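Page 42, continued from yesterday. The earlier attempt failed because a stray header line got pasted into the input along with the sequence. Redoing it now with the clean sequence only.
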Amino acid sequence: MLSSRHPLILGITGASGLIYAVRALKYLLAADCAIELVASKAVYMVWQAEQNIRMPAEPMQQEQFWREQAGEETSGKLTCHPWSDVGAAIASGSFRTLGMVVIPCSMSTVGKLATGLSSDLLERAADVQLKEGRKLVLVPRETPFSLIHLRNLTTLAEAGARIVPAIPAWYHHPQTIEDLVDFVVARALDQLDLDCVPLNRWQGH
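This time it went through. Structure tokens are written below.
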């Protein structure tokens, strides 16, 4: 069990690859974690584009939506926040957390965080993790990276963020798309000292 008195913030942006967020949420809830979830405005469009699914805007309906997508109806604790609610608890440094993982993370979000701009709750919550010296894990899903992307990511790494690109490995002998996704999710959660994803880790030759 990985439950803690402090919750983990799960930020989901409009980058392609919502399966990364869904799989991360699945394992975190199954491990009985408390999750504060905030999805950016663009996520509504990505669900429509990638899965032809309409994501509800109302927090209680959104909680049920994410639980259904993750296949975890009752485990853990999930609280969803509207992207526009910059007065939510997670917008304040006085709200204690384990840290935050943004998965997948768009280059737009990376750019705003690198320059200290917070135009919505997700960006504000991530900025708070940096200013409080807490763990911030970013999982960028973009290719190729432009020089601007690389410089922004470098700025965030220098500020203390951990950068875990959505780049899977093959030494664990993946058989499905989920196996590839889970490798990235596991490595991202490793940065937060959360070991809740079943993964055939490298054991040497």
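Notes: The longest strand covers residues 99-105.
Reminder to self: strip header lines before submitting.
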